[in-house]
Amino acid sequence: MIGKISGRIDYRGSDHLLIDVRGVGYIVYVSDRTLAGLPAAGEAVALYTDLIVREDLLQLFGFTTLLEKEWHRLLMSVQGIGAKASMAILGTLGAEGVSRAIALGDWNAVKAAQGVGPKIAQRVVNELKEKAPSLMAMGGTLAAAVSEETVDVIDTPHAVLQQPPVSTPSKAAHQSDALSALGNLGYGPGEAAGAVAEAAGANPDADTAELIRSALKLLAPKG
Question: What family classification does the UniProt entry report for this protein (predicted)?
Fold first, then answer.
């Protein structure tokens, strides 16, 4: 399985790239959000990939982070969500936005993606809500993980390979640490993830301590 591909962008389509790797062109489909953040044709690029195999079709889908790739796989596990719908959701919300929406049970945010109706959006939230905490906690470490298989760009004297951007500690790692801390305090994964997601949404630049304080206030008994 091809888990990562590195090369040069031959051309950019509306929803895909042609990446030249040592003279072989790979068509890689990406979300609108990912495409907007990639360099121009002729520049170096590296993407994590997921290969979908059908009887009559092989398709590569590309992601700038492993967190985005893992959410794609989870979204695809929901009945009624194919690759196109998954990429639409990720393109609309981004990986961290998907984490937050599902942890909070916000199916309206999921429904905002093109081609995703209310019933499908509710199914996504209901089926993945219990899985969101573990993926949020993994967010701080996924960027350092090694992909299954790598196709490397050809070496040239002037080539500087542009590595894919990874989640910064100020977001994914802080949320992961806050989730861990709340778990140690006895809170369940679901309620902890919802509180951390809400706190992170209210203050995207919050560090671990700030997230914990805000989440504890949200989890405190009302009355």
Answer: Belongs to the RuvA family.
